[in-house]
Specification:
This is FAR-17a/AIG1-like protein. By secondary structure, the chain is mainly α. The protein has one domain. Helix 1 packs antiparallel against helix 3. The radius of gyration is 19 Å and the shape is globular. The relative contact order is 0.14.
Length: 227
């Protein structure tokens, strides 16, 4: 009993620490002034970046998890489970693509001019934005029993389509400037395929989350085909 209580306290402490890092990554304090200025100067601001959108979803999901544990918020539990699952999937996309492309060539994601001048996010900021969120959600999922929901998979692809439309729109209003430089190097077919692949990556993370959650609870539940 004492060991279980200790694990529970440690888990909650880790959640708060990682949540704090996520909040930090959304603030201007985590970025060099030049990057903040560049972001504010473009239409859409920082919300054209998938990283920022998923960070806010992670924060909201975590807070919703705390609310759902209260007597008043109990009715939000199913919404929380779905939000946790899809947010984890989207963070999986962010984590996988960011670190893969970053190690290939950082300027596929970063402004080339600023990067060559040494104006870059700190390593702590990169971890807070592109690694800690998915760890936080992985810790959170241990508190709930998840089930496979077709609507979650639909959401991943729907979100991908909407985000693609968003960055296309802001590319148009920002005179051809894409949120991520890698899109500037692609044709339209390549961009669409890239987003589709990202959605499939998100789906794989979703299925992986369900498998992990099932192992934790030592049982497997068949998906509801009518969902």
């Amino acid at each position: 009993m004492e060991k279980r209580k200790t694990r529970s306290v440690l888990k909650e402490a880790l959640k708060l620490v990682f949540l704090g890092f996520c909040v930090y990554a959304t603030t201007d304090f985590s970025l060099p002034p030049e990057i903040v200025e560049m972001s504010n100067a473009t239409s859409g601001g920082k919300f054209v970046y998938l990283t920022i959108i998923t960070l806010y979803l992670t924060i909201i999901s975590t807070v919703l998890g705390y609310i759902s544990k209260t007597r008043v918020g109990k009715r939000l539990e199913e919404i929380y489970k779905d939000m946790l699952a899809v947010t984890f999937s989207l963070e999986g996309i962010v984590t996988t693509l960011f670190w893969s492309l970053y190690f290939i060539n950082p300027t596929l994601l970063k402004n080339k001019s600023l990067y060559k001048r040494g104006i870059r996010e700190s390593f702590l900021t990169e971890l807070s934005a592109h690694l800690f969120p998915i760890i936080l959600l992985l810790i959170c999922q241990a508190d709930v029993r998840l089930q496979k929901r077709k609507r979650c998979i639909y959401f991943i692809f729907g979100f991908g389509a909407l985000y693609f439309l968003e960055i296309c729109y802001f590319s148009f209003v920002n005179n051809g400037k894409w949120a991520y430089p890698i899109f500037r190097k692609m044709g339209w077919v390549q961009r669409i395929l890239f987003v589709l692949i990202a959605c499939f990556i998100g789906t794989l993370f979703y299925m992986g989350l369900l498998a992990t959650n099932s192992l934790i609870y030592q049982e497997y539940e068949q998906p509801n085909e009518n969902d």
